[in-house]
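User: Teach me something about this protein's shape.
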Amino acid sequence: MRKLVRALGLGMLVLAATAHGQARPSARERGEAELAKQLAGLVPGKPVRCIGLDRIEGPTIIENTAIVYRGLGGKLWVNRPRGADMLREDDILVQEIYGSQLCNLDQIKLLDRDTRMVRGFVGLDEFVPYTKPGKSERR
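Assistant: First, the predicted structure itself:
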């Protein structure tokens, strides 16, 4: 009887170890996968420091990874801000803009959607344009 209990105990430990070994991808890995899906079929261009606000639509947050702005002609502008691990998909981004451009030194305030409380900040980095192959790279 002791051998049976011992064998069952070992079997349960093996199952637990196996289940634990198949860990879920990290939030960062899930974010990178989501970003790759959005950028599928597009090619990166030369990074720029600023983008004109008149050429972009509102941002899409890729959790723990990046902020994506949709531009004219199907162009995507990807910004991987400093502190990207703070980004949550349901954040509200508050951008204080001084002029007609969004630039790599600007900071974005992160608000919790439910409480409207400030959760933190991220600092923008360079913007990388992604376009369909063969399209000209104009700002």
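Now, about its shape. Residues 2-131 form one domain. The first helix runs from residue 2 to 21. If you'd like, I can walk through any region in more detail.
User: That's plenty for now, thanks!
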